[in-house]
Amino acid sequence: ARIRDSILIEGSRDDVAILCVRYAGIALDRHRVDVRYADESARFAALLVAELERCGYARDAVVNAEVVLAELIGNLVRHAPGAATFVIDGRDDRVILHVLDEGPGYRFLSRLPTDTFSERGRGLFLIATLAEAFHVTLRPSCGSHACVTFSQVSADDVQRTRWSKTSARPRPAG
Questions:
Q1: Does the pLDDT value for residue 141 go beyond 90?
Q2: Long-range contacts of 79-84 (CB under 8 A, 24+ apart)
Q3: Which residue, of 10, 33, 90, 146, has the greatest Cβ tally within 10 A?
């Protein structure tokens, strides 16, 4: 009755159904990392590596994940210096990393820059290439939410898979 009375302050002239839900979601640890300090970033990187290893990722896949994290942190240092929130979701033997910054926000387009000598745009392309999935959304208040699903296979295995789907396989030199 208390819930009904607090929701239907003025009553109702018709039948009403009130659905009450209790969310018992999985609590994931949030890590606040000030990316301006290399030691904080390194401590977080060690946590990520430990989670990847716990989930059975191969050494090559862990190295790729370290490259992805380095690119993400490098972008934060350049475009949103200061503290960012990192969340590792290691359920179901698949590791997903969420990075929430408070900078101006950015969008991701999955392509290399048109200027091959450009200092901008390669990092996000590299992340997308090494990850199983990568997307970025703008946060309502400010900043961006980058989400990376780490691939469980090495970059070589990913490239072999891509080549096997095309008829134009690179030929060895010589």
A1: no
A2: 79/103, 79/104, 79/106, 80/104, 80/143, 80/144, 81/35, 81/36, 82/34, 82/35, 82/36, 83/32, 83/33, 83/34, 83/35, 84/32, 84/33, 84/35
A3: 146
